[in-house]
Amino acid sequence: MSIIKTATPKSADFVLIALTAILVLSGFLIFASASLGQLARGGASYSAVATSQLVFGIMGGSIALFIMSNIYYRNWRQYAFYIYSAAIVLTLAVFIPGIGMSHGGATRWLDLGITTFQPAELLKIGYIIYVATWLSGTHRHIDSWRYGVLPFVGISAIAGVVLLLQPDTDTFLIMAAAGAAMFVVSGGRWRDIAILAGAAVLLLVIVAFMRPYVMDRITTFMDSDKDPLGSGYQIQQSLIAVGSGGLWGRGYGQSIQKFEYLPEPIGDSIFAVFAEEFGFLGSTILVLLITGFVFRGLKIATQAADLFGTLIIVGLMTAIALQAFLNIGAMIGLAPVSGLPLPFISHGGTALFTLLAALGIVLNVSKYRLQKVSA
Predict the structure, then answer these.
(1) Which domain holds residue 130?
(2) What is the pLDDT of residues 241-266, one digit of tens each?
(3) What is the number of alpha carbons within 13 Å of residue 133 lying toward its C-beta?
(4) CA distances to 10, 15, 51, 327, 333 from 226, in Å
(5) Of 41-45, 68-72, 110-114, 198-202, where does mean pLDDT reach its minimum?
(6) pTM to 2 decimals?
(7) What's the domain count of the chain?
């Protein structure tokens, strides 16, 4: 057997399409149930959040996925710098009075009138595309500090400064992890990664001392019983919800914790709502679906026709996997509460739209996979 590169595009990977469709549809059903908790709150109405998720997130995202899956993925290389630069500028626009929107002490959204938009989601994708482009062109010098490590740090630091100003520490950590994964796959030395990881831990410690809310998350993770009505409230209520689900769950729509008790039941607490309604078995199936989705993406990455295709998939799948782990882990006490949404499921039309658009690029890469043929 030998491996050759296909001259013409084949069909996009059916398994990844099927897994994406299952996650999107099941995610909306979970979201619809969790949204009922809005009826007992004074925030956005049930119809408003459901319409945003369905129209902008699912319908708009599906259109974006279709369009992106039909654009030859290598074309993104020549526009990578401009995409990354535009994403940086757009993310900085949240600080413009009258346009930027603040919530919970963070300035992360643009007010578009009919809806809000979080440009950091675009920055995440722009960063991955640019780093994949840069690494695929300079991977032969990746073990050089002057031509490899330092430029990589510089590219990441620009995005980091912008996000930490908002502040949005969690998104920056996700991006940095995706960048590190691409750096390793392109041939980066583990010694360099260890040095960069040490620097990242030092930076996190500094940020924790400068930002009290980060320190609160860390100390609460270490001892969630210390302040059950304050910083430990969310994890305590999440554990009650997850434990109440038992093996089989209370049943679809029957969560009690989503009314009044769980903060952000349609946001970062949505897994706790799901676990309460579908129990341990349902939660296991969801985790397996996300895991299968990520591993299918990584399999496509190993068959990509070039390094750029491999890197862009590795970056995207790393970001999705880490974000899902941090969200679910936070709800069961295995990770600090981060406020990150659960991919495919949590409320956030921008996040779902950009996620599906990015998956369109992955599907296009899958059309040009290396094929095994008889010699």
Answers:
(1) 2-373
(2) 888 888 998 989 888 888 878 887 88
(3) 19
(4) 56, 45, 39, 21, 14
(5) 41-45
(6) 0.89
(7) 1
